[in-house]
């Protein structure tokens, strides 16, 4: 329904772009010009001859790692770089992947998060956002390694969504290093035990058990109001909240990263002394943040944190090579959750496109077709005649996740809606599970063709068979129906999509996951992904 679309768009604007009235308020004190957050080359520095007196097998360290040291200039002072590493731990997984890059192996790197790591605030996504700075450096720093860096971020979503659709944002079979950035979108809480930190734990667990045992690095950014001056300060934007240093989820999430021995970087800690205590030119809030998103200077500093972590890990690898103790830690099984019963399901939950194809066990007259364009596929199962039957088999068992036995699990069916050709299909559970039959009309008046979802609540079952039949009734005069996949909730009390679609249906508006916008991928050959629409949006954003 259109009001669900509007609700989703509003949520994305609020979470991933700015406070609705931020520009009007901030204009009074902060010049709304990209020049304000420009990168400042005069503040940058490099290692020079710092490591020339340290030798490994008579070879100076700065020569052994010359491609790594000589290809990047930092903006953040060295002391702040060290302070920004909130938790380093043993770094066994990180040491493993850095060792593979040093050896020239092929490595996949990814980032998942919200609008910040997606690139908001940077004047040119794909060039001036932090992950682009970092991935370009990574490719130059390890010239013998073929590195694939994928930006799988989705603006406006919290970690609870990425738990469901992780496989849509990562090369999950191959990824070996994953940066996670959800601190802004997850908000804050006064409770030590809260749903947001529990979501981060489940997300980390999902990543850690991927086939390549990837290293995980949380890159924390200031929460709403932290990169803001207090009330009464001459630069305070009227009406904007101000949060103190401790008003953030990242410290509670520090317990999670220590529990799983994954790394954490803090942009808050990196900048706070410079912006608040010392008020150093070039590091002030208005010079590093565009609004709640870092500007070009802030994105460059975020890249500083990631680059520094990898550099120091590489130095450590030369001083203490990866050994049996590291290998043992790398191969360790996950412990039980830090929060009791806080497990995500083992089975896939966001099953779309090609991954959905094996879930269909009977097709009849339905055909698996691609209606997209080169580089922008739009695949799914399609039927056009009444009586056509399809059966999909999904896993709704949540017995291992602490869910109440007998509770129902929401299944969100992804299907095409359009203003022409579309028909009506009935969905019903026929084996292994129970649910109320549901009829869905795929015809809409609005002249768009878009992926929608609707909700069915089904009983738990490892093999839940749902039949889909095209009906003879139609509101368009035709009978086409297309199914692209399903999103299966974590459980009855962990059902993130229900917070977006209060009526149980609506447009599936995550452009990076619905086929409307390609994710950016960088390799040694260059950058791929559709950024034309983004560039238009960025130009409009800065003109406001």
From TrEMBL:
Pfam families: Lipase_GDSL_2 (PF13472)
Species whose genome carries this gene: Volvox africanus
Keyword Signal listed: yes
Entry keywords, A to Z: Signal
First and last residue of the signal peptide: 1-26
Keyword DNA repair on entry: no
InterPro entries in the record: SGNH_hydro (IPR013830), SGNH_hydro_sf (IPR036514)
Positions of the SGNH hydrolase-type esterase domain: 111-301
Tree of life domain: Eukaryota
Protein name: SGNH hydrolase-type esterase domain-containing protein
């Amino acid at each position: 329904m259109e009001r669900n679309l509007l609700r989703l768009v509003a949520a994305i604007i609020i979470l991933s772009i700015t406070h609705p009235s931020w520009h009007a308020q901030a204009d009074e004190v902060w010049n709304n010009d990209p020049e304000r957050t420009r990168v400042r080359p005069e503040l940058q520095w490099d290692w020079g001859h710092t490591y020339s007196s340290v030798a490994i097998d008579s070879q100076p360290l700065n020569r052994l790692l010359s491609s790594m040291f000589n290809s990047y200039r930092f903006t953040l002072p060295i002391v702040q770089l060290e302070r920004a590493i909130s938790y380093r731990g043993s770094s066994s997984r990180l040491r493993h992947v850095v060792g593979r890059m040093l050896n020239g192996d092929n490595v996949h790197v990814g980032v998942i998060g919200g609008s910040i790591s997606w690139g908001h605030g940077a004047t040119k996504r794909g060039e001036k956002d932090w992950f682009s700075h970092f991935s370009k450096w990574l490719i130059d720093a390890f010239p013998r390694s073929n590195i694939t860096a994928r930006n799988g971020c989705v603006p406006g979503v919290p970690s609870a969504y990425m738990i469901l659709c992780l496989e849509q944002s990562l090369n999950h079979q191959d990824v070996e290093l994953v940066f996670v950035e959800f601190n802004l979108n997850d908000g804050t809480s006064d409770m030590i035990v809260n749903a947001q930190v529990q979501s981060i734990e489940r997300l980390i667990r999902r990543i850690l058990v991927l086939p390549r045992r990837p290293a995980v690095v949380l890159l924390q950014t200031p929460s709403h109001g932290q990169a803001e001056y207090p009330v009464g300060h001459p630069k305070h934007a009227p009406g904007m909240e101000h949060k103190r240093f401790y008003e953030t989820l990242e410290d509670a999430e520090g317990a999670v990263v220590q529990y799983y021995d994954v790394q954490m970087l803090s942009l808050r800690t990196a900048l706070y002394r410079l912006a608040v205590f010392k008020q150093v030119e070039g590091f002030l809030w208005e010079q590093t943040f565009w609004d709640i998103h870092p500007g070009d200077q802030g994105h460059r500093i975020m890249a500083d944190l990631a680059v520094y972590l990898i550099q120091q890990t590489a130095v450590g690898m030369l001083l203490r090579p990866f050994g049996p103790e590291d290998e043992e830690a790398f191969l360790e099984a996950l412990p039980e959750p830090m929060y009791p019963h806080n497990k995500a399901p083992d089975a896939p939950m966001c099953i779309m496109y090609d991954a959905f194809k094996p879930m269909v066990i009977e097709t009849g007259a339905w055909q698996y077709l691609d209606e997209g364009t080169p580089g922008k596929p739009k695949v799914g199962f399609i039927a056009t005649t009444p009586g056509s039957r399809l059966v999909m088999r999904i896993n709704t068992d949540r017995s291992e996740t602490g869910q109440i036995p007998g509770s129902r699990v929401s299944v969100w069916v992804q299907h095409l809606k359009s203003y022409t050709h579309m028909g009506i299909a009935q969905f019903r559970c026929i084996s292994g599970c129970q649910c109320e039959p549901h009829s869905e009309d795929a015809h809409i008046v609005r002249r768009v063709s878009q992926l929608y979802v609707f909700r069915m609540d089904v009983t738990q079952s490892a093999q839940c068979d749902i039949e889909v039949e095209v009906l003879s009734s139609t509101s368009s005069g035709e009978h086409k129906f297309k199914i692209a996949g399903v999103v299966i909730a974590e459980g009855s009390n962990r059902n993130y999509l229900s917070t977006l679609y209060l009526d149980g249906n609506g447009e599936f508006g995550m452009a990076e996951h619905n086929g409307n916008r390609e994710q950016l991928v960088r390799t040694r050959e260059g950058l791929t992904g559709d950024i034309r629409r983004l560039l238009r949006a960025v130009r409009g954003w800065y003109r406001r």
